[in-house]
Amino acid sequence: SVLGAADKTLFDEFDRVIVLKEDNYVAGLYDGEMAHVFLLYSSWCGHCQRFAPTYKEFADSIHHWRNVIDVTGVDCVYDTVVCRKYKARGYPTVRFIRPTTNSSVIGETYEGGRSKEDLIAWTVQMLGAVKNPPAAWPNLQPLTVAESEAIASGGQTSIVAIVDRESVGQEIMLDLQDSKIRYTVLGSDSANVLEAKTTGIVLVSPKGKISHVVNTEATAAELEKQIKQFTTVKESEDEGEGEGRKEGDKEIEFVDTTKQYRLHELDMQSAINTAFYFEVASKNTFTKEDVNNLKNFVTVAQRCGSWTPQYNAQLAKVKKALKPRETLTPDEWSGILEEATKVGFPRNSTFIGCKGSNPNTRGFTCSLWLLFHTMLSSCYNTAPGSVAVLRSIHGYVDSFFTCSYCRDHFLTMAERMKLLEITNDRTAILAFWEAHNVVNKRLSVVEHDPYFPKVQFPPQSICEGCVDATGRFDTAAIFDFLNKHYRRVLTPYGRLRIMGRSDRGKRYIM
Fold this sequence. Notes:
The protein is an alpha/beta fold. The protein has 17 helices and twelve strands. Helix 6 packs across helix 8 (about 220-230), helix 10 crosses helix 13 and helix 13 (about 365-380) packs antiparallel against helix 14 (about 385-400).
């Protein structure tokens, strides 16, 4: 596991989302007569975290369709091999897997809105488009003329929903799953056979008597209410539903917020580890530009980060292995990491200053920002320089950010701020600080860790002189603060390293 704890995911046993893993995803997705909605997500991705409650609601809403479709997902932090197979450009990505599909098929990608209703509408559309569906499925197709004529002739009691569009009828079929109930679309030839003049339901007696019940609202829910007045639809129930769907008492854990502005090397090592073993490892193919961006990022990280001699040497080995390569495959990258692991390069991540109040907040994203700022400050007026660092950050985000929304926001902001046109180290440091505060402001209304709210950095509590009498940031004071703050790093042994000086310094209590 990249993160060192396999329970840091977005769904648990109380949810109706089936979390798949590398050893069971083939059986889970390609098991014959079931269709699957499949979510590729990263438990570190803020957009995935915000989407997870909607996905849970979606799974709850269609749980009674479970003999037709399962709602599943895989956490790409832990199962990069699976996620690489499905070629997701970013997370979250939702796919539809048809029934009786072989395991080489990666499914159809959802590109609609992010509401529960959007997901349900898309799922209905995808299920309705399945050709030759399994016999156990409800009939999702509208009546043919011949079927309407057979119903109109009598012989048994029949109920037909008259809908304004197929998707409403298909949703009714999925909700009720009663073979005696069918639907047709108002204005179609099959509806005309049943003398339907408006939306609602048509009742046909065994003697062929046709009765109409009008319903102008014509939503699936309204029509289902009417249908249930004339027939008994047995609601399926889970065994034990209503019992045991409570989480046990959780142990209350004290959240330490005092370390959030200290720089810990372990946080920045964790940023590199997660970037290498998760984000870069998630790539399906590497373009020449991707390879160059990776080389530049590793070079800058090794030269401009604040590392123990051992970790610095391990990064240097990765850099050396990449240097002669003009192309790279996922297997070759895995091989480079495997060799690095043999000489002690860590796989696990340990967050200290970036530890959130729960496992899915802060962590990797926090540590990556710390790493970026530290590299910019430590290479100020020192080769390769802050400008080169800024360009390597831009290249990394462009090629390897798995959160597609974060990537797009960053690249749009970078273009607007003309980050790649900067030629001065001081300007590079201040521009990236400004960019980070733009992101903080945007996320302040949606970020979810109540113990660590998004604020403009630095707050007065750690830099009183950074804000002038009018409440505006003083850029001269900010620059001086950034260059000092991001050069003071706590080593894994608890000693304060001030970059540019010896490793002597007072010991912090950690």
